[in-house]
Amino acid sequence: MQNAANEIAATRTFDAPRALVFEMWTRAGHLANCWGPSGFTLTTSEFDFREGGAWRFVMHGPDGTDYKNEIVFRTIDAPNRIAYSHTNGPLFDAEATFEERDGNTDVTVRMTFATAELRDRVMRTSNAEEGLRQTLDRLGAQVDEAFTISRTFDAPRELVFRAWTDVEHLKQWWGPKGFEVRHCTLDLRPGGTMHYDMRGPNDMVMWGRWTFREVTPPERLVFVTSFSDEHGGVTRAPFFDGGWPLEVLSAILFEEHDGKTTLKMIGLPINATDAERATFKSAHASMQGGWTGTLDQLTAYLEKQS
Predict the structure, then answer these.
(1) pLDDT tens profile 135-158
(2) Which residues are CB-neighbours of 186 under 8 A, at least 6 positions away?
């Protein structure tokens, strides 16, 4: 990357959709786990993610030294770009850009100082370029904790997308084997929700809710999943003794090739505690089994539609 004499910049590619990576830059809980060089921790006192809003936090160095920071957000163009100013020494402007390519996301962070001399002084005193790279590496480690699964269907993309976004289709295949969907309402738009029940053996009933962040037919869906009650409220999972995240950000990508459709799904907890993130990660194997069964049912259903 060619930088101006007064800039520090770094780029990293993440194996995740742009919406998910951008989300991780807009949540104080995620930033607390990745912002700053390796070995640093972070305490946030204020996080107001809006244009003109401020993020005030203290970075705690491995040697016990505290570093107060204040960032003011100047531009928020979701999910493409964030521009902000670091307003307590050293002073600089910065931007983070998010570019999606084939389901991956290139993130470039560029810090611009008033002069080349100030940039050089920051480089000498804090090794800021390496610190920026380590921040992106730490973010990548969080992305690597995401659950992923993929499947290729012998069906056109429009049909596969419709199977995920039409209530009458969903009722025919959605859920683990042995479960039946009887109630399902769907408002397919950003900010809209899907609310459904799954009824299994021994009169077991589970409710779930999706809240859509992005709807781009027939290419992608981005939504927040949560367990729910019959009225649509968010509830704790009926297992894991309260250790399961309340919300999981999910993205589904639909890619067509030679008349077939490859689906890739990725999910990552948001607003989660360290314990909840650990529980989610430890459950990847069981989630793989459960989703495999669900996608088997979708495969069988799509075969009947062709």
Answers:
(1) 999 999 888 889 999 999 999 999
(2) 165, 166, 167, 170, 192, 194
Alpha-carbon separation of residue 47 from 35, 50, 203, 276, 294 (angstroms): 14, 9, 44, 22, 38
* Peptide bond just before 245 cis, omega within 30 deg: no
Q: How far apart are CA 232 and CA 220, in angstroms?
A: 24
DSSP strands (E only) in 121-259:
147-153, 184-186, 193-199, 205-216, 220-228, 234-235, 247-257
Report the distance separating Cα 217 and Cα 221, nearest Å.
8
- Using CA atoms of 229, 235, 241, 247 in order, give the dihedral in degrees to the nearest 10: 130
For 247-296, how does the pLDDT look when each residue is reduced to its tens digit (9 = 90+)? 999 999 999 999 999 999 999 998 888 889 889 999 999 999 999 999 99
> What is the CA 140 to chain-centroid distance, rounded?
12
> SS3 for 17?
coil
